[in-house]
Amino acid sequence: MRELTERELVEGCLREDRRCQEALYKRYARRMYAVCLRYARHELEAQDMMQEGFVRVFDKLGGFRQDGSLEGWVRRIMVHTAINQYRRKSFQQERFGLEKLPEDPVAATALAELGERELLALVAGLPDGYRTVFNLFAIEGYDHAEIASMLGCGESTSRSQLAKARRMLQERIHAIHLTTHEGKASDR
Amino acid sequence: MRERHPIDDIFRRGLAAAEVEPPASVWAGVLRQRAGRHRLVVVWRRFRWMGLLALLIGAPLLWWVRTDAPARITPASAQAPAARSGSVNAPMGASDRSSPPAGTVPVPAHATTSSTPSSSARIPDATTAPEATTNRATDGRSPAAIAPDERARPSTAPVGTNNHFTAAERIGHERSSTRAQKVPERERTSSKSTFGGSAAGVLWMTDRLSVGDAEPMTGRRSALAHGMPAAAPGARNLPASYVLPRADWWLAVVAGRFDRSRLWKGSDPELVSARTAVEGHTGEWLWGLWAGRRWRSGTWFGAGVEHTGGRSTYERFDQSQQVSALVNTSIAIFENIVLATQSDTLFVVQERAETTVINGRSSTWRVPLLLGWERGVRRWVFGAHLGLAVEWQRMRDGYLFVEEWSEGGTVVQRTERVRDADRSFGLVSAQLALDGGFQLTEHWRITAGPVYQAGLGVVIGEGAVQALPTRLGGQLRLSVDLPHRNR
């Protein structure tokens, strides 16, 4: 059975064809779930985010102009769903000092061997504000002006949160290195 | 310039194309959430008009039935504490508010307390000798005028009657009872007033109005107007017969959205058929200003100026053939003798496909004359109105699609720009509408409802082509009652 094209998928979904909707979901679910995991604090929140995001995708599919990539469009909706969820919460993480950051245990794996799960765990360990800014800047590729308008904060806030997120990730990666080396030394 | 950082690269490489299998419950949740929303949308789309109609008809009907219900006599035991609560300083009609529900008539307190006195009213202390004083107190004298010996004199009245009150209580009781008897109808219906009873509002009205422009409020009509706040603090100083104006002038801003279709008529059948072929339903916005006068009976009239405008695009795909005949004749002549002739005809068929997009913008000025009727229930107002309007319709811009057949059978499509002067005409239309409104403040009101308008006939500018519109839509208006002039 041939794979449906994006256009066929969209048209089927607009006709409320259940099979097309499921096909669209299955095609993008894995990638979008990874996106949601990056923005969420834990898996349950990511699942809620993904459910809400896909409901919005199906609701707004009529507005998708088929001149771009459907995946990019779905991803944007997921990111905006995550941002909306984040904006509902206050921007209190801005006031967090590094000393007060929650300490999440990170798997002792060599940096080179860090897989998706470990990287996701590192990102998930960031406070909400840092995580959102880091995701938007480092992975989605938005600049600070765009992030500031999306999150409703100042550009300087976005910059400082990104810097703190990077520093925190660096510290954690460094700690992973140390743990790994110590482990290797004790093996000898 | 974008900052680059090695940490960003590590995460971008690792996570940009990351894939994680989501649990199956997510898809089930999406289906569940969409099914619920979809069901609501379907129900809303299918039944919205019926629901709105039921609300517009049912709510006034319910109110009508409730206010027309016969007055119930409240049991005496329920009345007694209420009547007694009206002490000397209690405002007039306090008993009216404290116990009877809407639609009941207060029973005179003395008739009820005499048979079933409340235990809270009894004075167990014998020194107060209540029985001695109460008989005298009813003769109209003040407590101070009653002699101390009279107060102390034991009564012969049997225990268990209203003689268990002290003099002061008795006087207060009697006063409140008398007041309860004299509570005019306007006060009894005040709980159904449009405005819920604002003492300041009534005082303001009585202060500013002259009797010549007013009539006393009685009966059900008072329910439409500003109600007398029977139990409002300070209301005891209100004049006994307060007055309200017979009618109010009002001003309203109107906005609406309509679905419009047009019936084309005229002396040029080609244009009429062309217009009919390409024009369908289109959306139209309406803005306007109304003014009018509203009487206490609920009848109102209004007139105003409205402007509606619509933009429509029609797309038409046409296929045609262009046939050309080429005749090639050969003649062989030898010494002026025609030896042979040959004639070849070559037909060239050209297929043509053309999409014609026709844009049309039209605007209409309307001057409606309206007659309406409404009823109020608390702050809600329900009614209907109908009217006639003179309309001046103008096609502001547009193209007509015209098909032409040439002699050789060639089909020619032609679009023709329409000029304003060509397509302006006046007509008369009728309109019918239902109104549901809410009194925002004492003077401001917002009203909405479905409206149907239909063109009746062209009166000015009968020419090649005219259109009679039919509109169905919703209208929203914000109105304000204008202040009265002091005379």
Keywords:
heterodimer, A: 188 residues, mainly alpha, Rna Polymerase Sigma Factor, Chain: A, Arc Repressor Mutant, subunit A, 8 helices, globular, B: 487 residues, alpha+beta, Porin, 3 domains, eight-stranded antiparallel beta barrel, two-stranded parallel ribbon, 13 strands, 26% helix, flat
Structural class of chain A: mainly alpha
- Low-pLDDT sequence parts of chain B: 71-235
Shape of chain B: flat
Supply the number of helical segments of chain B. Answer: 11
CATH-derived topology of the largest domain in chain A: Arc Repressor Mutant, subunit A
Distance N to C terminus of chain B: 75 Å
Based on helices, strands and strand pairing, what is the structural class of chain B? Answer: alpha+beta
CATH architecture of the largest domain in chain B: Beta Barrel
Distance between the termini of chain A: 56 Å
User: Can you tell me the CATH superfamily of the largest domain in chain A?
Assistant: Winged helix-like DNA-binding domain superfamily/Winged helix DNA-binding domain
**Tally of alpha and pi helices of chain A:** 8
Query: How much helicity do the residues of chain B have?
Result: 25-40%
Instruction: Supply the number of structural domains of chain B.
Output: 3
What fold name goes in the CATH topology slot of the largest domain in chain B? Porin
Count the beta strands of chain A: 0
CATH architecture type of the largest domain in chain A: Orthogonal Bundle
- Would you identify the regions of chain A where 5 or more consecutive residues have pLDDT less than 50? 91-110
The CATH class designation of the largest domain in chain B is: Mainly Beta
* Extended strand count of chain B: 13
